[in-house]
Write a structure and sequence with these properties.
This protein is of the alpha+beta class and 186 residues long. It has 2 domains: 1-95, no CATH class; 98-185, no CATH class. It is built from 3 helices and 6 strands. It has helices at 16-23, 40-44, 109-114; strands spanning 98-105, 121-124, 137-138, 150-155, 162-169, 180-185. Strands 3-2-1-4-5-6 form a 6-stranded antiparallel sheet. Strand 4 (150-155) and strand 5 (162-169) form a beta hairpin.
Length: 186
């Protein structure tokens, strides 16, 4: 499990030990052993290491997490002073992107569902093979450009066979562009 988002994390707040576990790849709520001391400098260092005196040497920060002021999902530290624990809300050390094969329409779902698979491939940040509600879809693997708002007829990534479903993706600002707001049958 990654570090909880601001909305998910209520009192007593984020814990440095748990952030260290996540940075070591063991999950925020995992039981990965962490050697004291823990330095926020080392946790925030984009290239990893333990130059700040930590008892563990940390891997590089997973740059697939978006650097954003939005506390919603997949944030990451920027590595610059002042160092802030809040930069870790939603951070996921093991985040990967999964391929999305689709047919797209900005008009409506029936139009998208009537189209054949396109050769363009996008990527999503969810844990399932196909994007689900709340996942974000990006035009590139690195996650810098959210997919445009519209309707995406979904196809199996490996076979290219239609799933019979479409995903609705929203646009807009505030870090929500590219977010799947529902998956339904064609």
């Amino acid at each position: 499990m990654p570090v909880p988002t601001y909305d998910e994390l209520q009192d007593p707040g984020m814990q440095m030990l748990k952030v260290a576990r996540e940075r070591l790849g063991g999950g925020y709520s995992g039981s990965t052993s962490v050697t004291s001391p823990i330095s926020l400098k080392d946790l925030s260092n984009l290239s990893g290491g333990n130059s700040g005196g930590s008892g563990n040497s940390y891997p590089a920060v997973n740059l697939l997490n978006v650097q954003s002021a939005n506390f919603n999902r997949n944030r990451r530290p920027d590595g610059n002073d002042p160092l802030k624990m809040s930069e870790f809300f939603g951070y996921n050390q093991t985040l990967t992107r999964r391929e999305v094969r689709f047919a797209y329409s900005s008009v409506n779902s029936s139009t998208a569902c009537s189209f054949s698979i396109q050769s363009t491939r996008y990527y999503h940040d969810g844990s399932s093979t196909l994007p689900t509600d709340g996942d974000k879809i990006y035009t590139t693997y690195d996650g810098f450009t959210p997919a445009p708002a519209g309707y995406y007829h979904l196809f199996e990534p490996d076979s290219g066979t239609s799933t019979g479903d479409y995903a609705e993706v929203i646009g807009g600002g505030g870090g929500f562009a590219g977010t799947v707001v529902g998956v339904s049958s064609c």
